[in-house]
Amino acid sequence: MTERIWEVFRQQDEGDPMVHAGNVNAPDDELAVHYAREMYGRRGESHRLWVVARDAITELDDPDLLRPPFDRSHKKPGGYIIKHKLEAAKQRAAAEAGEGSDE
Amino acid sequence: MSEAPAATLDAPAREALAELLLSVADDEFVIGFWDSEWTGIAPMLEEDVATSSIAQDEIGHARALYEMLATLTDGDADRIAYGRDADGFRHAALLNHARGDWAFSVARRYLYETADAVRLAALARSSDEPLAALSTKMRREETYHLQHADTWLRRLSEGASEGRERLVGALGRLWPDAQDVFAPLAAEEELVRSGLLAEPMRALHAEWQARVRPVLEPIVGELPALTPSLDGRTRRNDDFRWLHGELTAVYRSEEGATW
Amino acid sequence: MQYASFVIESSDTIQPLSPRPPYEAGDEAFYAHVGSGGKVEADHWMPDAYRAAVLKFVEMHANSELMGVLPERDWIMRAPNLRRKLALTSKIQDEVGHAQLLYRVAEDLGKPRVQMFQDLLDGKTKFHNVFHYPTRSWADVGIIAWLVDAAAIVSQQALRDSSYAPYARTMKKICWEESVHIMHGRDVVLTLMNGTDAQRGMVQEALDRWWGPLMQMHGPPTDPAKDKDLHWQIKAKNNEQLRQEFLSIYVPRILELGLTIPDPGLGYDEAAGRWHYTEPDWVELKSVVTGHGPASQERLEFRRTSFADTQWVRDALLGGAAAAA
């Protein structure tokens, strides 16, 4: 049996990211593209499709690599909470300016 | 489409255009019906969805053409489509046949799509602007149909022997009636004179033959030189009478009702 | 799928590992994971019982979409105007599409598509009750697209949160598509109800026939403690919840058209906050889903014939490369 599985990625509108939509059974590239269009584009709902043989995809899902245990907050915006420091700095600056005007 | 084309056409031209529109509309309507029968029972699930889309496209084209005709003749698209007797239909004899097996449907679709492509190219140059615009629109969808028809023709002809035999048999049986997509229209002289039809049907027929022979003859062997029949758009058979009975069954059950 | 999970050892050799789901292998950890809303993918470890339960559930759903095509298919040729012809063909096409989506999900759990078709045709696997009944008029087309699809969508919306992620994702797509079908169905029914006496009569007659199967559709109330599918979060609501939801939305919509629902025992109990109704015929349900419905055998036979008639095409297509060589 020479049937294979093809993964289909779609783009909703121009500029949007390609998002995984599903998969189709087909004997080859040519029919896979036809069928991807039918399953994920026949209503005019997609701007673009990528059709990729499943066995061409390399997957990574190891949590040790993708969600490793050590602190990595310095790599994300949420790792830089400045609210209190900013408050403190503003208050100090305001106080200094107030002292200066007394002289 | 905001203005009726009728405003700019004299009576003979209007009548000629009506005949032309009806012939194309009926072709699309009838082939859409036959192929919609594959919905749910095509050879593979994905192919089922694909074939149904193509059949729906044809019905959509038919609808647009019937609507154009309705505007031209001050009629109603549904009544034109559903309100005639079987003998009132003007589709090509190629489309009289039931869908048959998969090879038969593939063969008929290939013959029809290639012929329709030639016809649409001519209609896209029609002196009637709305018709030219509609034809250009239809051609965009028909590209996909042609690709699909070609894909299947190749797969069956190049694959296992049973598929090839069935395909060859179907092409042989359908070849004579396929000519009738180019059957002469009664008002052909007027159509060509007024530029509504860019070229006479016999020229389009020759063009189609030149395109498909090199593709088909390697598969089926030499194809007889045939010309379209005079009754190519008026003769009917039992298959089509059955279809007509089905498609009008509910419509006729309550005369004038809205569904 | 190929797995590129690596461990980079000190000597820089790379060794592939087996897929690592976000939980330990083992029934207890798995149950804790799905119980707290965790998701499962096709290539994750899962208890055999879970795999079997999901497969059975999805396979029956896929079968139902495929068999569900047949009651309406006859009417593709008889649709009474151009718009209805397009809408009905499109709707049935969608059902075939749903079958494709669901057989794909089931196939990725390990059962080949052709095996599933064979089991269906051999009567070894089931499909939902409503698809075992004949259609008799154009009004059936409206009632099925409106109410049968509505009853189905009530279940399907609950399934969007299934623990089995590929199924949940598929259900989101299916629910979106079904919402269009329900609009089409309701439009058909409304048009008939606004039409002639004969057309209205047609709708009432169809409703009279379909009400029984509709009430049976969600199945008999089950004991939540013993419901495996709930246990594994394959489905999120029990049968009775689904039926109540269906009644709450659709009974008012049916009655407002002037239709009569053929159950004198149907009514809403304000105090209890639930609908009461004449107990559906669970014997009929069991008999029907085991292949004894009025149209069960005829439909399975039709499927067998169509499938056999097109076997040469599949052989030509899939054996093509080998055969032509």
Defining key terms:
heterotrimer; B: 259 residues; mainly alpha; Ferritin; 9 helices; globular; C: 325 residues; two-stranded antiparallel ribbon; 62% helix; disordered C terminus
Helix/sheet category of chain A: alpha+beta
Query: End-to-end span of chain C in angstroms?
Result: 29 Å
Largest sheet of chain A: 3 strands, antiparallel
Q: Please count the helical segments of chain C.
A: 13
Radius of gyration from the alpha-carbon trace of chain C, in angstroms: 22 Å
Low-confidence stretches of chain A: none
Overview of this protein structure:
With 103 residues, chain A is of the alpha+beta class. Chain A has one domain: Ubiquitin-like (UB roll), CATH 3.10.20. Helix content of chain A is 36%, strand content 23%. The model of chain A has no long low-confidence stretch (mean pLDDT 89). Helices cover 67% and strands 0% of the residues of chain B. In chain B, α4 (102-123) runs antiparallel to α5 and α4 crosses α6. Chain C has helices at 27-35, 48-73, 82-107, 113-121, 138-159, 165-193, 197-216, 228-231, 239-255, 282-292, 296-309, 311-318, 320-324; strands at residues 2-3, 6-8, 14-16, 267-269, 274-276. Chain C has a two-stranded antiparallel ribbon with strand order 2-3. Chain C has a two-stranded antiparallel ribbon with strand order 4-5. In chain C, α3 runs antiparallel to α6, α5 (138-159) runs parallel beside α7 and α5 (138-159) packs across α9. β4 (58-59) of chain A pairs parallel with β1 (2-3) of chain C.
How would you summarize this macromolecular structure in one to three sentences?
Chain B is mainly alpha-helical and 259 residues long.
